[in-house]
Amino acid sequence: MQIKRNYLFFPDKEGTEAIGYKSDAKLRLRVRFDKSKIVNFNVGYRVDLKKWSTETQRCKSGTTHSKKKISASEINTEIQRLENLADNVFKCFEVMEYLPDEKEYRAAFNEANGKSTGKEPERAQTFFTIFDEFTRTMGWQNSWTSATFTKFSSIRKHLFSFDPKLDLKTLNEEQMQLFVAHLHKEDMRNTTIAKNVAFVKWFLRWANAKGYYPGNLHMVWKPKFKGTDGNQKEVIHLTWNELMSLYNFDFSQARMKVKDINGRPILTVSGNPKEIDLTDESKKMLGYVRDVFCFCCFTSLRYSDVAKLSRSDVRDTFISIVTQKTTDGLKIELNKYSKAILDKYKDVHFPKNKVLPVISNQKMNDRLKEMGEIAGINEDQRIVYFKGNERIEEVHPKYNLLTTHCGRRTFIVNALFLGIPAEVVMRWTGHSDYKAMKPYIKIVDLLKEQEMNKFNQV
């Protein structure tokens, strides 16, 4: 379920056209959804009308507002927080597949914002209503992304499919083992099942702390899954040479292989792959995708952050952002490559004052594979995973495995390989746990060993 909505931040002018308006005004948020439903909220700041940008719905950079001289950056940060919060409330209703009315949305927004003034309507307490409460509470508190809400929506569906009459008070280890068996029948990889189990245990910990669940499965139930220790994990990334090749690739001369319905190249009479010229629009789009992806490779930004990067986030030598996933405030210095990409689009106008031509995540992932194939990023990549006790090994050309998140991985691997200390890299990426860097350090150690072996070949 998807609820259509839009947000408008605006100064609520005080006065009339005849006698004149005050020079400043209360800042408000208007949420419109389901075509005609409208709810207004007070942002909590006053802004000077001359220093407000109607186009970007933000205070103009470098200004101060009201008699208290509050900086534009402080007000804009609160605007972004409320916009994220408003969206998270909708995502939670979408997970529950429920369309709220104005009163229900206002109450949910205020609760998420820590301003709840009344009790929630009484609902019969079942396993799944409690799971919905967990999703709603944790989603609001932790500013979950759409992807996280989708994960928990999927887990809820799997639990309901397994047993729609689950009862928290009688839940036991045998039921959970049967749930794992149910997931195996869904043909899931062990890594996916392990994540689902971890999320269910998170729910049980929360339910236990709230007094809904009297058991202790969250502490004593520790199922083991082959291939989930991280040793088999392949971190898909571009080497420095691949990155430079892609960065400098000329898509204006690009041609594409013609494939059959099974994805196999169609050959010409001479036995060579048949190729066709791309349309000008396709070449242009591939160039956009390449530039956005490379920008992530040179800055460590996630897709969610590059998608909302606006001109107010960019300074002469660095970008300053509050990340969508973790709400960390990060300062990331620009290098000559990332700066060149920004300069390329500095005179191009994009909606909502964005700095780069970012398309949807799904479309970009599709285009990345096409882009990688045309640019010749076709090194064989081995993928190993387990389903139950079965070890499965697959080999794919690297372009077929490219996703937007590979940009962030590419930044980390190449930064470490260039000798930048892990502590510095973590300041750019926002990683707070050194454990998260271990898979990348392992890759870099292997790369250094391979490079050192070149001396033995001279």
Automatic annotation (TrEMBL):
Source species, domain of life: Bacteria
| Keyword tags | DNA integration, DNA recombination, DNA-binding
**Some GO term, biological process aspect, for this entry: which one?**
DNA recombination
- One MF term from GO for this chain? DNA binding
All copies of domain Core-binding (CB), residue ranges:
125-208
Task: Report what the protein is called.
Answer: Integrase domain protein SAM domain protein
| Pfam families named among the record's database cross-references | Phage_int_SAM_5
Q: Which CDD domains match?
A: INTN1_C_like
Keyword Glycoprotein found? no
Species in which this protein is naturally found: Paludibacter propionicigenes (strain DSM 17365 / JCM 13257 / WB4)
